[in-house]
Amino acid sequence: MHAWIQAVIDVLIVVMASILVLFVLALVILHILTTTNNKQVERIKRRIMRMLSVTQDLDFLRGQIMRLLAHEDGIAGLRDIRGIRSNRGTIAMTLVVEEVPAEQKEALREIILADEWYLAHIHRRMASSNADRVGVFTKLIAELRLPGFEQDIIRELRRWPKRADNQEIGLLALFMCGCEDELVELLGDSSFRLIISFRSLQELFVQYTGNKAALYRRLLRQECDLYITRACIRGIGVDGLEELCEDVLPYLESTNTNLLIDAVRTLGKLRYAPAVEAIRAFTRHEAWTVRSTAASALFDAAPESCRDDLLRCLCDSEWWVRFHAAEALSALPNPPDLETDIAPLDDRFAYEMYRFMLERNALLAEGKAS
């Protein structure tokens, strides 16, 4: 009897142990399945949130691009970033380009140039019928100075001739990529009409990465829009390109007041001796804007021989002419004395302007000292 009971107990122990083992195995399997399902659910959840939220999608894509630049595991190239060829992927790319330092921007440029898959994608997108989309890709080309898209950009510039935003970003790409031949041909084409502002055009020349002297010379020696000519003449002065003064000199004979003013200012700033007497004569020009510019330019070009002309300009009927004359006179190595040199002119407005300039200079000097 005892043996029979012991046998029953042994069987029950084996059965219970087996059930316990099976239960533990079931828990382990359930845990694995639950974890796997949770990861899948999280992936699906992230994907849905990215679809619903532009901000989250852009943040995700920016993070992936930053991981690529940081050489993190799992992202060996642009192909490993899901959605990089979408519109949001391109926007994220431009955002990263604007945020990262020059070294990482150059690294991203090299990654793109080495990836024919992504370059082909840009070419396709540049042929899009959506002007805004093309603008985004053109901006990316400009920011990263990507070569090989010159004809795509020129085609789009002609495709939307009345869209100022597309024209500005397209020209920016050509300027930032240093496309001298393409710019000379495009800007010299009478059928191409500039619709951007003069200020925007000036900024484009500032962004040019090629040989500025060569670009200025070629543009000045062909028929161009007035804005182009003015921007070149101003740029020559700003960039201090004295070797181009001969190309600017003929514009002192221009009948366009704004063009004449730009030429006078540039040649004065560069102290071009052959232009001094012409600039001196312009201090008597009928247009006060020309006289005002000539007063400052004469001081820049010939400070040793401009005193008498500036004293005459100090008595001009226009406020701005008197202002620039007083400014120049007060900056001479041996400036006139208010009482002994200016008072005898017997011109109350000249006296008040020169006194104002002396007081202004004193305040500025005091501010710098403190």
Task: Show the helix and strand layout.
Layout: H1 2-52, H2 54-69, H3 87-99, H4 102-113, H5 116-126, H6 131-144, H7 150-159, H8 164-176, H9 180-187, H10 198-206, H11 212-220, H12 226-238, H13 245-248, H14 257-269, H15 276-282, H16 288-301, H17 307-314, H18 319-330, H19 338-342, H20 348-369
Structure explained in plain terms:
This protein has 20 helices and no strands. It has 370 residues and is an all-alpha fold. Helix 3 runs parallel beside helix 6. The chain starts with a helix and ends with a helix. About 1% of the residues have low confidence.
Q: In summary, what is this structure?
A:
Helices cover 71% and strands 0% of the residues. It has 20 helices and no strands. About 1% of the residues have low confidence.
Describe the main β-sheet briefly.
Answer: none
Unreliable spans are: 48-52
Cα-atom radius of gyration: 36 Å
Number of strand elements? 0
What proportion strand? under 5%
> What structural category characterises the helix and strand content?
mainly alpha
Q: How helix-rich are the residues, as a percent range?
A: over 70%
Question: Kindly state the mean pLDDT as a whole number?
Answer: 89
User: How far is the N terminus from the C terminus?
Assistant: 113 Å
Quickly list its features:
370 residues, mainly alpha, 20 helices, 71% helix, elongated
